[in-house]
Each structure stands twice: as structure tokens, then as C-alpha cells.
Amino acid sequence: MDDLIAQLEQLTSQIMLQIHEVSSEELETFVDQRQAIIDLMLERTGGREATVAEQTRLKAIMENDQAILSRMNDLKIEAKDWLMQRNRAKVQKNAYEVSYAVDSIIVDTKRY
């Protein structure tokens, strides 16, 4: 179990070193790796509780969760803003595009 906690510590410290520059893909990879380690921990423990030392180490790792969640939220807002800007540009573009048929015939019904 100590080796898995050490892996979690290393993984978390690596992501925290670059938390403000990390991309959404890198965060996704981090979360997947973290979940795989946690799943292994659950398999190995077989339902036994962690020791006090292990709990202390895990709590120290979890103290970084707020910063990680904050970065995820920042990326989410950034993506939302980009999508809204793109949709506005699309609406403006559609407003200026020709909306009539090129093959149409105009009939003048004015009588003399």
C-alpha cells in the first residue's frame, strides 16, 4: 500500500508543479491515472482500513484537490466562453450570407 500512496504523492506533486499551465487533456490523464491507483489500493486492502500513517499521507494528497478542481473549473469556463464566441461569430456570418436562391426569377406584376 505504501508504494501506491507514493505513486499518488508523486503524481499529485507533478500536476501541482504545473497546475496553472496544465491542459484539459493532461488533467484528464491525471484523473485516469489517479483512479487506476485508487482502484488498485481498494483491491489490495480488501476492506481493511488504512493505518494512521497512511491516512495522514492520503489527507495530505487530498489537500491539493481544491486547487485541481479550481483549475478544472477554469478550463470549463474557458471552453464555455470559446463556444459562446464561436456561436456568436456563426450567427453574424449567417446574417451576412446570401439567403436567396440564385436561380430565382423575378416577375414584375406592375400593369401599365
Automatic annotation (TrEMBL):
Pfam families: FliT (PF05400). It comes from the Bacteria. Keywords: Bacterial flagellum biogenesis, Chaperone, Cytoplasm. It is found in: Cytoplasm, Cytosol. InterPro entries: FliT. Belongs to the bacillales FliT family. May act as an export chaperone for the filament capping protein FliD. This is Flagellar protein FliT. It comes from Paenibacillus amylolyticus.
